[in-house]
UniProtKB/TrEMBL annotation:
Lineage: Bacteria, Bacillati, Bacillota, Bacilli, Bacillales
Organism the protein comes from: Oceanobacillus limi
Highest taxon, organism lineage: Bacteria
The protein's name: SnoaL-like domain-containing protein
Record region (Disordered): 25-46
Length: 169
């Protein structure tokens, strides 16, 4: 889970890079006209997305996932549906990768047939091999997002963890 938190931190850093430093500090009032406000913030209505909001949402979502009570914590952060879905998907992905690495369940097979399934089986690996595993996972994810454009998380099974499954077109 520690690795998942580190990955979440990296993801938050990427998201927060898009937010103005002065606004993050809270020292500058937002007196901009509608024309000066970025499109993403207009979509969000009254509330602008800032780093603290994102951290709060991730923290609540992580707690909820660990206790099995996911609820609707993502809705505490107002944002357009595409952005919310992207953040939710990325967070779930990061959380699952972290859980698998933490449990040392590391053997991967990838089937590129009609339904591409990534299975994580139980096997012990070293820390260096864990990083190789993570790199392979990310490679597959990027490939699937780029080529197929859609994917979803699926649950655990008795044999191992069915980690990622491509949605049928």
């Amino acid at each position: 889970m520690k690795r998942a938190v580190v990955l979440v931190g990296c993801f938050i850093s990427v998201l927060s890079a898009c937010v103005d430093d002065a606004e993050l500090s809270g020292e500058v009032e937002d007196n901009r006209s509608a024309e000066e406000v970025p499109e993403a913030n207009i979509k969000n209505g009254e509330k602008e997305v800032n780093e603290q909001d994102i951290i709060e949402v991730y923290t609540k979502q992580l707690d909820a996932m660990e206790t099995g009570d996911e609820g609707t914590y993502m809705n505490t952060l107002s944002m357009d549906p595409d952005t919310e879905e992207n953040i939710r998907s990325q967070f779930q992905l990061i959380q699952e990768i972290g859980a698998v690495i933490e449990a040392q369940e590391m053997e991967v097979t990838f089937d590129s047939s009609t339904k591409a399934d990534l299975y994580v089986k139980q096997k012990m690996y070293t820390v260096e091999e864990n990083q190789e595993f993570l790199d392979r996972i990310l490679e597959v994810i990027y490939h699937m997002e780029k080529v197929h454009g859609k994917w979803k998380m699926v649950g655990s099974s008795a044999i191992g963890i069915t980690f990622l499954e491509e949605l049928a077109n």
